[in-house]
Amino acid sequence: MATPQAHDTAVARANEALRTYTLSGEGWHRSPGETLQHVLTDLLHWCDDTQRDFDAALERARRRHVEETGQADGAA
Q1: Within a 10 A sphere around the Cβ of 35, how many other Cβ atoms?
Q2: Cα–Cα distance for residue pair 21/61, rounded to 1 Å
Q3: Mean pLDDT of 40-62
Q4: Please, what is the Cα angle at 11 between 25 and 30, to 5 degrees?
Q5: pTM above 0.85, yes or no
Q6: What is the rounded distance in angstroms from the CA atom of residue 14 to the CA atom of residue 54?
Q7: pLDDT in tens, 34-47
Q8: What distance, in Å, lies between the first and last C-alpha atoms of the chain?
Q9: So what's the pLDDT on residue 76?
Q10: Cβ-contact 22, 37 below 8 angstroms
Q11: What is the pLDDT of residues 13-32, one digit of tens each?
Q12: Residues 6+ positions from 47 with CB-CB distance below 8 Å
């Protein structure tokens, strides 16, 4: 299970990544949910270009999150 410090570090990294989108030319017009949608869409495009399996990576990320939080999917 992730320590509170590891959780806070993960959230800080995510905030920093999302801040890049928020500070973009169009970003300030978007809600946090819309910003997240744009990040995910860009990652899908990146996966297309680099022949990565987005769904497989997302599933692995979900499993890691469950391991780190000790909670089942959707219980957080």
Answers
A1: 20
A2: 21
A3: 97
A4: 25
A5: no
A6: 18
A7: 888 989 999 999 99
A8: 13
A9: 47
A10: no
A11: 998 888 888 777 666 677 88
A12: 53, 54, 57
Please check whether residue 66 is in contact with residue 60, taking contact to mean a CB–CB distance below 8 angstroms. no
- Collapsing DSSP states into helix, strand and coil, what is residue 75? coil
3-class DSSP assignment, residue 43: helix
Q: Show the tokens assigned to 24.
A: 């973009």
> What is the DSSP code (8-state) at residue 73?
T
| Encoded tokens for 48 | 């297309």
Q: Which of 76, 55, 57 minimizes the C-alpha distance to 66? A: 76
Longest dimension (CA), the chain: 39
Q: Indicate the SS3 state at residue 25.
A: coil
Token duo for residue 31:
């809600």
